[in-house]
Specification:
Chain lengths: 430, 882
């Protein structure tokens, strides 16, 4: 769903929207660039382009109060945000999206490098983005792993070598998998029996939902195909045309047999799919799982033995932003790592890159549940004030470290992106 | 509640009507349901059609989108928007018309997808247009410019190595080739190639390249354009391939869902229609079956409860009518009309039984009745014969008594006319009186027995009141001979001369009452007043008053009862049967009247009799006179004549006293009359001057005597040749008195009481079995100058007449041995002797006897004992005087 007309609304985790209106955004970006600049303002105004995941009204109010700046949130679908940002750096000051957009943005020149020294708590940022591993045994994950694209190399390319400049500020991140209705599908064991392969299990034919996004859904399906042993990928984060052909041959065949019930484009839609029993298993984002559980639909968010599809939030500075705006933008970035916002989004199930600071803002029970992978000592409230976790609940997939040690692939824009679009079209239209 | 057949039938009718109504309602409901189902189904087909069209249109949209994506054809744009409008319209139409329950938000989601699709399409157009622009213009321009710079450089630097120029051209051409490739088939490989070639181009720019600065810039800009081209291409391809395809597919999915819903709806509608049709059919069948069952039940009910019982009852009635016996009546315990009929039949039956019983008992009764009747008849006959015997006995007795009595009386009368001593005369007189009393007693007894037997009848014939009064006076006068009492008969001036009635019975009443009055009066007056009243009915009023012993009130109350006299002592003192007044009462009643009495003990009694009568003509008993002369009346203060209603005679007398007599003067021109009242007689000296004077006056003198004539009166009469009016007198006598006074007629019959014997000429036959009576009759006839033959009985009489019919008259006793008087008369008449006067003689004074006499052919009838006066009177009628 296109959300570009929405204003910043109250926190709505279900509004983590997806990918629309790229070309349109590109165009409106051009128009915005031509808008007259107004100097006569008492407060510095920061325009934030992003998705609903982080552009939440509570955060905006809190930040404005804390920083004494004015914030303008422009939440959009992922693809649209990327399109707009890549083509019109003048239309925003800060950009909040996923790590898979970094390559495009960086190459387009619409973002500038962030100086590490101006990030107050840089030192507290954990190794996920720095070395790629939270723990020694953790998988690095295929595709555009954040650590590969964080540092700006001397040749202005993004690379592994640590420099003083980074392409984005690491902050919100999480792992995604699929959800399944335990009324129909027997509850599996995390990391043991739960498998991406279930998505292509003939038993659930006609009851399978996939997110309608090649950069995300494609990996779910690729992991599934691989899990079922239908094919293997040399590098699942960079599939070749041939691999895509093979994969889509399999998928189109299944599609034609009616294996897939639908392709959702927004979190609410994915909730509807499951709630309406259109599907019993589908690619999911964690807010949808919470919503369904809230509706007493027993959906389990799987911890696939093949590993998660990870995603990492990136906060980028527009190449057009300079002066006071740039200073204010840095303040906002620092605010994000100041503890409170991390605690806030922790209660929504997301992680922050410097969790120790946010731990101070969380109760022990909250910390133990959200980060520690321990049973909730008591019922925990979400950011909306309602109980989102019952006492004794254990976060599926375990602790922060455990979950991020099992990332199979990161959301990635592969070189064969254009080809995958074509294939995707063939697939969903089959 | 439904006890009566009426209500049952009404109920049944109501039930039948209800069935019809229910059937009608059901069939209507069924029809409505079927029509509705059909309509809904049709509507559903429409919806299905609409959904199909939506599907088709979206596929068409996709097709046009792809066409546009490939060719950027404007036709497909307009076609796209046309289709979009259509789809939206159809969606709205569906939403508006489809009254089926669609999954919540389904249509909104479809619309949402559609809106996204449309919006995205415009973005695609923008992207596609920009790509065209970049590809056709921006890139072309820059390539041309670089190529131009290379050409310029080549031209300027003639003779230098061509290698860098060729290399530049080659790389640029290669880049251009990849751009074209990319445009045909977007692939980031091509972009990489392009960028590589451009970098290569840049790297092979010779040092002496004059416009290297410009070329580098152009290459840089080319790179940017390429980036933009790729981004834009990615953008719209992403939109087309992912977003819009997703939207379209989702839309199609939703359409399919919609179609499924519609189809399900359709199926359910069909199913529902089928079910409702089946249901309706079932209902109809049930209703029909129920109706049939109910109708059958009703038929059975009607047959069982009505027709059959009615038939049974009819049979019962038929049997009952035929008088057959029946055993039990069906439906007797029912409470409806049939029950009533059954009860009626039962009643009928009971009645029949009763009738039969009645008939039997009737027959029994009849026979009993018959026996009784027979007995009754026998008894009646016995009674009748007994009554007959009694009557016969009485008749015989009376006959047997009267016959000798007649003889006795007759002989006494005859003896009295002989030379006798004073004492003998006196004795005979007494003997005659006793005989008459006895006769009266016998007659009373006879009359009473007749009345009692209801055989007393009265006749209604014309009679002369004068004759009646004359008879009374004549009978009563004989009674008065022994008494020193006055007897007056007064008549009202209004009394007519002729009246209708029974003169015999009226006489009997008068005589009885007079007899009584005279019997119980010792001094004073017995007065009879006869009046006539004419109203709606004519009445003869008789008043008989006396100054006798009178009666107490108690006596008055019982005086008319049979055998009752004023008191027991009365019979001892006065004798009599006590039947007289009873007979009066009964006769009065018989004649449509009554009798009443008022009495004061010691002062006298007054009997008032009212009798129905009828006036035949207006002639009055007392005729009005045209009296022209003066009338002087010497009388007391209360003159007797004042009672006599002189006014009625048109006489207005001048009252005078004795003193006036001497001075009396008369007008000689007009005959004058002097009336002298009896009361004045004692004061008149026969030789007085007054009388002499009167004599000289040639005045006609009338003496009015209230009693019997005595010697002094006779002397006076002789002396002054006075006319005398004495009491009692008849109205005609009264009238004649004044007529004679007026000098118009000096008739000698002033006093009819004076027995004047006439002699008759002739030879009569006396038919009488009793020897004594033969003698009496013979003597009486002889005394009247007639010669007689005697016949012993009827047969004898007939024989005598057959031998010699030259009799002037025949006195025929009716009751004789061998042959009675009636039979003899009949034979005589039958023999042709019609002119022969036959007078019946009988002791029976009853009407029957008179009728029988007339019937048998007798001319007249006399009752025995034969009175010389009546005999003479009879002779007057038929015989010639000597």
């Amino acid at each position: 769903m296109p959300d570009n007309k929405d204003n910043i609304g109250p926190i709505d985790p279900q509004k983590r929207d997806t990918f629309t209106a790229i070309a349109k955004t590109a165009l409106s970006g051009c128009i915005a660039a031509k808008a007259p600049f107004v100097f006569a303002r008492t407060k510095t105004k920061i325009r934030v382009l992003g998705t609903h995941v982080t552009l939440q009204e509570e955060l905006r109010q809190k930040a404005m109060a804390d920083l004494g700046i004015e914030l303008e949130f422009e939440p959009k679908g992922s693809a649209a945000v990327l399109q707009k940002a890549s083509m019109s750096p003048g239309s925003f000051d800060l950009y909040e999206q996923w790590s898979n957009s970094i390559n495009v943005l960086w190459r387009s020149g619409s973002i500038q490098a962030i100086e590490k020294k101006r990030i107050k708590h840089w030192g507290e940022i954990n190794n996920l983005t720095k070395t790629g591993r939270l723990t020694d045994t953790a998988k690095l994950g295929a595709g555009d792993a954040p650590y590969k694209i964080l540092h700006v190399q001397d040749d202005d390319e993004l690379g592994l070598n640590h420099t003083d400049r980074v392409s984005f500020l690491p902050y919100v991140h999480n792992v995604d998998s699929f959800g399944y209705n335990t009324d129909i599908i027997p509850q599996g064991k995390p990391y043991e029996t739960e498998s991406w392969g279930w998505l292509l299990d003939e038993r659930y034919a006609g009851k399978v939902g996939i997110v309608n996004a090649p950069t995300i859904g494609l990996f779910d399906l690729a992991l599934a195909a691989q899990a079922r042993g239908l094919m293997t990928f040399a590098d699942i984060g960079a599939m070749t045309k041939h691999e895509l052909d093979t994969l889509f041959d399999i998928l189109i065949g299944m599609k034609k047999r009616g294996h897939f019930s639908g392709f959702w484009t927004s979190v609410p839609e994915s909730v509807d799919f499951m709630a309406n029993k259109r599907v019993v298993i589908e690619s999911m984002f964690s807010p949808a799982v919470s919503a369904l559980n809230g509706k007493n639909i027993p959906v389990t968010y799987a911890a696939p033995k093949e590993g998660y599809r990870g995603w990492h939030g990136v906060m980028c500075l527009s190449s057009a932003t300079q002066g006071r705006q740039k200073d204010a933008a840095y303040e906002y970035m620092n605010w994000w790592l100041s503890g409170w916002p991390g605690a806030f989004i922790a209660r929504q199930g997301y992680y922050i890159s410097n969790p120790q600071r946010s731990k101070l803002e969380l109760t022990q029970a909250e910390w133990d549940y959200w980060y520690g992978g321990k049973a909730a000592a008591h019922a925990l409230k979400g950011t909306d004030g309602r109980v989102s976790v019952n006492a004794g609940d254990i976060r599926r997939g375990g602790s922060y470290e455990k979950r991020f040690s099992n990332v199979a692939v990161w959301n990635t824009v592969m070189p064969t992106y254009e080809y995958s679009l074509q294939k995707w079209y063939e697939f969903i239209s089959a | 509640m439904f006890h009566s057949l009426k209500s049952q039938i009404i109920f049944i009718l109501a039930a039948l009507i209800s069935i019809l109504v229910i059937q009608a309602i059901f069939s209507r409901a069924t029809q409505t349901t079927l029509i509705q189902s059909q309509e809904t189904l049709n509507h559903s087909y429409d919806n299905a059609g609409l959904v199909y069209e939506l599907e088709r249109d979206v596929i068409d949209l996709q097709r046009n989108l792809l066409i546009y994506k490939e060719t950027a054809s404007t036709t497909s744009i307009s076609r796209f928007y046309e289709l979009m409008t259509q789809v939206k319209k159809k969606l709205s139409l569906f939403e508006k018309n489809a009254n089926i329950i669609v999954e919540t938000g389904l249509l909104d989601r479809m619309r949402g997808h559609l809106n996204d699709y449309k919006e995205n399409f415009s973005s695609v157009i923008d992207g596609r247009s920009e790509r065209e622009h970049i590809f056709n213009e921006k890139l072309r321009l820059k390539f041309n410019r670089i190529n131009q710079l290379i050409t310029e450089y080549e031209q300027k630097k003639i003779g230098i190595s061509k290698t860098p120029v060729l290399a530049m051209k080659y790389h640029l051409a290669t880049a251009d080739k990849y751009i074209n490739k990319y445009v045909i088939s977007p692939d980031s490989e091509h972009i990489t190639q392009i960028n590589q070639q451009l970098a290569n181009t840049k790297s092979v720019i010779p040092i002496d390249f004059t416009e290297s600065q410009q070329a580098n810039t152009l290459i840089k800009e080319l790179k940017k354009d390429i980036f933009r081209l790729s981004q834009i291409t990615r953008g719209y391809v992403f939109l087309v391939n992912v977003v819009m395809a997703g939207s379209a597919n989702e839309f199609l999915y939703l359409t399919k869902k919609l179609r499924k819903t519609v189809l399900n709806e359709q199926l359910s509608l069909i199913e529902r229609a089928r079910l409702s049709a089946e249901k309706a059919q079932l209902k109809t069948r049930i209703v029909a079956l129920t109706s049939i069952i109910i109708t059958l039940l009703i038929a059975i009910f009607i047959f069982g409860r009505m027709i059959k019982p009615i038939r049974s009852i009819t049979d019962v009635f038929t049997k009952l009518v035929n008088g057959d016996d029946i055993i039990g009546i069906p439906g007797i315990n029912r409470k409806d009309e049939i029950g009533n009929l059954a009860k009626a039949a039962n009643v009928f039956h009971d009645k029949n039984m009763q009738t039969a019983e009645l008939l039997l008992s009737e027959q029994k009764m009849n026979s009993m009745q018959k026996a009784l009747n027979n007995e009754l008849e026998v008894a009646k006959q016995k009674a009748e014969s007994a009554a007959e015997s009694k009557s016969m006995f009485l008749a015989n007795m009376s006959h047997e008594i009267r016959t000798p009595m007649n003889g006795i009386i007759g002989l006494i009368e005859l003896t009295r006319n002989t030379e006798l001593t004073e004492q003998q005369t006196q004795h005979l007189k007494m003997a005659a009186y006793s005989g008459r009393v006895m006769m009266n007693v016998i007659n009373d007894i006879l009359d009473f027995s007749k009345i009692e037997a209801g055989k007393m009848e009265v006749e209604f014939v014309e009679f002369n009141i004068n004759e009646l009064i004359e008879n009374i006076i004549s009978v009563v006068s004989s009674l008065l001979e022994e008494k020193e009492i006055k007897f007056r008969v007064k008549t009202s001036p209004s009394l007519p001369k002729f009246l209708f009635g029974d003169p015999l019975r009226i006489s009997q009443i008068l005589l009885n009452l007079c007899n009584n009055a005279i019997k119980f009066t010792h001094q004073g007056l017995v007065e009879v007043f006869i009046d006539f009243k004419s109203a709606a009915q004519d009445y003869l009023l008789i008043e008989i008053s006396d100054t006798g012993i009178g009666m107490s009130q108690a006596q008055v109350e019982t005086i008319f009862n049979s055998f009752t006299q004023a008191d027991g002592s009365t019979s001892r003192k006065y004798g009599g049967t006590g039947l007289g007044l009873t007979i009066v009462k009964e006769l009065s009643l018989l004649m449509g009247g009554d009798v009443s009495v008022s009495s004061t003990e010691g002062q006298g009694s007054r009997f008032n009799v009212t009798l129905q009568t009828k006036m035949t003509n207006t002639t009055k008993a007392i005729k009005v006179l045209d009296y022209k002369g003066e009338v002087f009346y010497l009388a007391d203060i209360t003159p007797y004549l004042s009672d006599l209603n002189l006014e009625s005679l048109n006489i207005y007398p001048i009252m005078i006293t004795q003193e006036d007599l001497c001075a009396l003067k008369v007008n000689s021109q007009v005959p004058s009359t002097l009336l002298i009242d009896e009361s004045q007689l004692n004061y008149l000296d026969i030789n007085s001057d007054a009388l002499i004077h009167i004599k000289d006056l040639t005045i006609q003198i009338g003496l009015i005597i209230d009693g019997k004539l005595d010697s002094s009166v006779s002397i006076l009469q002789d002396k002054i040749q006075a006319k005398i009016l004495s009491q009692p007198h008849t109205p005609s006598q009264y009238h004649e008195f004044f007529v004679s006074l007026s000098g118009q007629d000096t008739a000698s019959e002033i006093n009819s009481l004076e027995h004047q014997k006439h002699l008759f000429k002739g030879h009569i036959l006396i038919v009488e079995d009793n020897e004594i009576n033969q003698i009496v009759a013979e003597t009486m006839a002889a005394q009247l100058g007639l010669s007689c033959d005697i016949a012993e009985n009827g047969q004898d009489a007939v024989d005598k007449i057959m031998q010699n019919p030259d009799y002037d008259l025949i006195l025929m006793d009716v009751q004789m041995p061998i042959m009675g008087g009636y039979e003899a008369t009949k034979i005589i008449r039958a023999a042709g002797f019609n002119d022969l006067v036959i007078c019946g003689l009988s002791a029976n004074a009853m009407k029957d006897d008179f009728d029988l006499a007339k019937e048998s052919g007798m001319n007249d009838y006399l009752t025995k004992p034969i009175e010389p006066a009546s005999l003479q009177k009879m002779f007057e009628k038929y015989l010639i005087r000597a």
